[in-house]
Amino acid sequence: MIRRWTAWTAILVILLGLIIMFVHQKRITSSEEVDYSEASEPERVTITFAARDIELTPSMIADFEKAHPKVAIKRIDMDTGKMALLSNSATSPDILLIRGAKELPYYALHGFAMNVESRIRNSTMFPSDDLFPVTNIYRFDGNNQGAGPYYGFMKDWSPDYTIMYNKTLFDQAGVPYPDSKTPMTWQQLMDTAQKLTVNQQENSTQPIRQYGLGINNHFTALNQDVLLLQLAQLDKSPWYDHYRKADFTSPEMSRIHNLWNEAVDHAVGPTPINAELKTPSSLFLDGKMGMFMVGYWFLNSIEQMGMGGKSFPVGFAPAPVFEDGKRLSPVQAGVGGIISAKTAHKEEAWEVFEWFFAGPPADERAKQGWGVPAFRSKFKLLPKDTELQRAAFAFVQAELAYCDTLLDNNPYLLENSLTQALDKNIVPVYFHRKSMDQAFYQLTEEMNYSITDSILNTQIK
């Protein structure tokens, strides 16, 4: 009896031991499986991208993240990102959209933009023979824009000094339409603008009922953008000594000032003296402006507002030229992007950069007509569904021959430095509080001070 009890006890002990071993092994296996699963989970890197919400939408981000599971995109406001980058903040974006024509040299010269030359050259998505020459805006050799390595890339662009005009207002004024292939001279532009300007009745608080000429984002007066274009057409520059000095006292400056002083005197458009609550673009869309200096990209606004061919028919004219000057139709903004030189995720940032500027988003932007694409092969994707779109396509195609010249923006100056200095020194001339000579002398002094200050903080990386 004792033997039988002992035998059963032994069997039970053995069984209990086996059960304990099985449970322990199961726990080890489960633990290993969990650890292995966690280790195989791809670690996701987040790339911060400073852009407007219409340029980088949630659906675009979702498409990218689906195809690139190891990289996430966080969009932040463009201006917020720019301030963070320029102040070397810890919250600086990895990628930032900029107005390359005006800003790229400064960002490259001061070490904010990463050199992406080798990446662009080694990528199959940026074939060099497929790039429009204006993409050279994102190249910089330490002194000259348009040469040297790439420090970014173009999103899209426009010949920004072309003229869109309201045919109905021309008909009402009995003024012939501008030619779509032969540019007006600057004086012809001013004369035409005066003919299209209609004064309001005497008892009105607003003296102008209809303007002849507007300039996108500016008063119809001397400003940085038209100044640099007109100087380039006259083969002049306000900069010398490798951009380390400025001179705004040349005879060409006086000639250009006199032209725009005429525009202010006759109030052919909104001016510092005759300011408007509405922007020039709104006035044009409202049928209150005969001519509007703006790029191809604005066509989309006309189409979306329902103005094209409905409220008024729109025509196109080339960028104006001096009778003794070169015909140029350059880029004023050239929005594109840079990768921060201080990004902690260079490979992942390039992955996003390559996708955004050369991948599916580039095709979609071209199809929507928000600008001329950077790639020749995508030019055919521009919209041609409506009569207005087809006319704009043919017009911009002819204008391409004059778009390669880059305006002479100073790499030591931030985008709006010259604009602010012009407003400060030239506007008092319109109010007869300062002479033209005084204004140009003080403008020269101020810009030289700004350049010298910037040089002290310059580093090339």
Automatic annotation (TrEMBL):
InterPro entries from the UniProt entry: Bact_solute-bd_prot1, SBP
KW Magnesium (keyword) present: no
Domain of life: Bacteria
Alphabetic keyword roster: Membrane, Transmembrane, Transmembrane helix
KW Glycoprotein (keyword) present: no
Transmembrane feature ranges: 6-23
Gene3D superfamilies per record: Periplasmic binding protein-like II (3.40.190.10)
Coiled coil: none
Protein name: Extracellular solute-binding protein
Organism: Paenibacillus plantarum
